[in-house]
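name: query_chain
kind: protein
chains: 1
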Amino acid sequence: MRKLLALWAGVMLASAQSASATTLNVLPLGDSITVGQFGSGFTPGAYRSRLESAVLNRGTGIRFRGPWTNNAAPGQVSTQHAGFSGHTIGEIRNRLPSIQSHVLASDLCLLLAGTNDVNRDRGAYDALTDLEGIIYDLIDIKPNLRVVVGTVPPRRDQTRSQVLREINFGIPVLVNNLRKKGLDIGLAYTAETFTNLQTQMVDNLHPSAAGYDQMYQAWLPVMKETYTDIDGDGKLTLWDYMELSMAFDSIEGDWNWHAKADIDKDGQVTIFDYIELSSEMSAPRR
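structure:
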């Protein structure tokens, strides 16, 4: 107990100083909604630029990964992404070998796909089977990659609504089943952020700027909480402090090493990891 109190006192003293910045390496993986493309037009930055601004405003660095750099918003710092316009989940899965280096360079993958499965009248079972497959393939490439899955955005004309509902009902079930198997999978309710389809959709399938203004907010808390959730229960609590305390002053190879406790990814568990965890726990939730 004395050690824990001493460490906590150290956190309070060091929090007045500037902590070493954590940089999140994020792979935005999906279809045209990840790109921000609709027909021959574009919504600059899609959800990516909005997420970048929000994360930077929290004092954390972010670097997007992926093979493309098109459709960045003015002033956007990190422009890479892995958006494959027109692709179904299975077709995106088939492209993974070509972006393996980007998967390996990433800490997190924001996976948003399924719009084209709905558009082509693919059944929910097939779409969810492909979704499970792509998650396993991503983790096979990089076992410690954290995947956050988004629900499929709505269609403005409400056609094919039954299969869309079935897919979005199945995604949380799939995520929960994978968590029971020990996989560190996050869930973002991106579809549920849409409140006015007439203004938040630019056409039948694609979000407008107003839609992306809503959508990014679903990624933000899940993304950061997944990154800093040390004990793996999907939320930030005092138990995460306890896990970090057990690993304090350790490096890889030590008996008490805990990779998740190394939040700033500098290869050791130090006072700065406490500061990162404290900062995220005190940040306002959107």
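note: The chain is about 45% helix and 10% strand.
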